[in-house]
Amino acid sequence: MADFFAQMMEFINSTQIPAQFNAVDVKGLLTNGWFMIPFLALVGYQLFKQAFNNLALIAIGMGLWVFSGSHYVQEIRVNGEIQMDKVLPLVAVGVLTLGIIVYLFFIRSDD
Q: CB of 60 within 8 A of CB of 97?
């Protein structure tokens, strides 16, 4: 199992996905019409359909994207070592996110 994860991490690093996420220009993205018009159309369509679960997923995705680029998350690894005092809040964000998703899709429904 550890070999599988090592191969997966090697693949992710070879595709330079983390570097691409770090190179995203958020201000440029949010002022680019080629992104904002379809994004706002998607949000408007979801509001029209009253698909609030989908809107919540979009909001969760955007929130996690902003959180993952925050200064707090950037300071978790210092000199290649994980700061253990910062791991618990990170895990709490993950548990809260999963809890909201489980609530939206399995406990409460949009029937």
A: yes
Which pair of tokens denotes residue 67?
A: 């959180």
β-strand partners of 81: 78
Please state the pTM of the whole predicted model: 0.69
Helix boundaries (H) for the chain: 2-14, 17-22, 26-30, 33-49, 52-68, 71-74, 87-102
Q: pLDDT digits over 30-84, tens only?
A: 888 898 999 999 999 999 998 888 999 999 998 888 888 777 877 888 887 888 8
Q: How far apart are CA 92 and CA 88, in angstroms?
A: 6
